[in-house]
Amino acid sequence: EVQLVESGGGLVQAGGSLRLSCAASGFTFSSYWMTWVRRAPGKGLEWVANIEQDGSNKYYVDSVKGRFTISRDNAKNSLYLQMNSLRAEDTAVYYCARGLFGCAGGICDDYWGQGTLVTVSS
Amino acid sequence: QSVLTQPPSMSAAPGQKVTISCSGSSSNIGNSYVSWYQQLPGTAPKLLIYENDKRPSGIPDRFSGSKSGTSATLGITGLQTGDEADYYCGTWDSSLSAGVFGGGTKLTVL
Prior knowledge:
The complex is a heterodimer. Chain A is mainly beta. Chain A has strands at residues 3-7, 10-13, 18-25, 34-39, 45-51, 58-60, 68-73, 78-83, 92-99, 109-112, 116-121. In chain A, the strands form 2 sheets. In chain A, strands 2, 4, 5, 6, 9, 10 and 11 form a 7-stranded mixed β-sheet that branches. In chain A, a hairpin with a 6-residue loop joins strand 5 (45-51) and strand 6. The model of chain A has no long low-confidence stretch (mean pLDDT 96). Chain B is mainly β. The radius of gyration of chain B is 13 Å and the shape is globular. The chains are: A mainly beta, B mainly beta. Chain A binds chain B through residues 35, 37, 39, 44-47, 50, 59-62, 95, 97, 100, 103-110, 112-115, and chain B through 2, 32-35, 37, 39, 43-47, 50-51, 56, 86, 88, 90-92, 96-104.
């Protein structure tokens, strides 16, 4: 059974840092693109970043470029999101998601974790 | 302001059909595949449609997708109360080199 379990969320002051983790199981982690998506309170989904299978290519939404870093450890079946210089507007539930194998394009993520809440106090 | 435009809310009666639109541009919908996601209250998003019109295994054929030019549509037939959720379109934007979602459509089945 495919499982994605996020951790590392919590309350942090503006300007602080957090590292989110996503533990994957039930599939060959190293064969899939992985993505972070967030949903702020009262708002819609926002795509944050994704990373290629071997970590060679990474993409970010403009609002987090230079502050967030996506990474992965295929030996540990884990995905990470290092978040620095946090702002109040980064407050959201953060989800990790697995890219659908063989998806020809677009953003198609077929399995999602339950999310971890990040709250940035100003 | 989302890159992709969806109606904020829609409503329909049980058993009816609804279509949710998603409008973009040549750098996103016009140049890439569209996916649709359902997010029930308090749960993680769920992939309903990918590559414009394909359904992952386990998604009933009440859900359908289409794309034309720079717009896409999600259709839901035989509406059920359990379909009350937020629906999002998503795609890749080649100008931004990033994924983008629509603002979401809150569907009420009454």
